[in-house]
Amino acid sequence: MEVELKELLSDLHSLKKSISDPSHLALIEKMHLHAENIATLEKSGTARRSKVKDMSAEVVDSNPYSRLMALQRMGIVNNYERIREFSVAIVGIGGVGSVAAEMLTRCGIGRLLLYDYDKVELANMNRLFFRPEQVGMTKTDAAVQTLSEINPDVVLESYTLNITTVEGFDTFMSSLTNKSFQPTKSGSGVDLVLSCVDNYEARMVVNQACNELNQTWMESGVSEDAVSGHIQLLIPGETACFACVPPLVVASGIDERTLKREGVCAASLPTTMGVVAGLLVQNTLKYLLKFGQVSRYLGYNALKDYFPTMEMKPNSQCSNAACLERQKEYILAKPTRDAAAKAKADIEALSPAENPVHADNEWNISVVDDEEVDGSDVKISGVLPEGIVHELPVADEYPKPPVTETVGPADDLEELRRQLEALNAD
């Protein structure tokens, strides 16, 4: 294509030189401009980076992972390259899910499984991810198209289906248990499921699947007025599942679908969705790469910039049978788990202190303890450059009180005598 465009531009240039008619020249100039635009688009469309076999910390402009690997050099993460071993499933590729997928792709996640049944519409252009030319495509296919251009190293799987149907649920379950990406991995075929759906029914389906598979997952949501949101970590048996503490509306027996009025849609702010997606992916990275503190529940109120946190224990009378089964397994395994945690804490207590983050110290900067400073070696000079005077007294000089004239006893008696003589004279 590039060769043909170059030949076309060359022919138009030659034709322009051989024709003297001004009207024809204008037409040829227009064709020449169009050909140049097509050549520019073709060049930009093929500017895709090749796959990177191994992550490197080398700081060069051609390394897409140098800034990420810096986390390892600075001691935040022990081994950042492990991120390539993880699989994450994202259910709901909307305002939160699409941005979360992009963030994980840029972070170099190993595999992403994307689930959604909807298509891209112009009404979705308030999102941070979709583009107008993708209108009419399924959200999962549009996501794969964009994400593969951002990072070709990530394995992307698109599932255009509705998980709330029987067929969709079966496909969802089988895809989560597929271990083709990491055959030796224990448990299911994914390391974490992220729920980014916008209704209670879909959340309950994800909850059911994860309880049955004993799969850890994270739930997220944005309020109908678009000014608050939350993320929540759900570990079957250890934390409350989504059925343990149902929303008040659902617990009251009200059908969620009856609350939506015809012609009225919920508000949607890309800022709030971006914040929630960022919190969700940040929590995901901390969970997968084992650094920092993983939040069990973190809320966000945009009006007050308020971030409430809490921890919810499982309900022993949960209506979900799979959740009750996971609770029993968790209680039975608690003694072994506590013993392992104690042994790990003992090993860490005996381990030597960590080296400084920047041990090379190329600028020869040293830090001296206050107790090691000898005060006798410190010399302070009160001499100032010419033309500069002290505005305030020097701190080392104690201000002397002004000298007052002392009054002796003889002077006091003389004063009393004069006062008495004045009284007698009257």
UniProtKB/TrEMBL annotation:
Residue ranges constituting the THIF-type NAD/FAD binding fold domain according to the UniProt record: 65-319
PROSITE patterns, per the entry: D_2_HYDROXYACID_DH_1
Entry-linked CDD domains: ThiF_MoeB_HesA_family (cd00757)
Alphabetical keyword list: ATP-binding, Metal-binding, Nucleotide-binding, Ubl conjugation pathway, Zinc
UniProt-listed GO biological process terms: protein ufmylation
GO molecular function, one term: UFM1 activating enzyme activity
Superkingdom to which the source organism belongs: Eukaryota
Record-level GO cellular component terms: cytoplasm; cytosol
A Pfam family assignment: ThiF
Family (UniProt): Belongs to the ubiquitin-activating E1 family. UBA5 subfamily.
Name this protein carries in UniProt: Ubiquitin-like modifier-activating enzyme 5
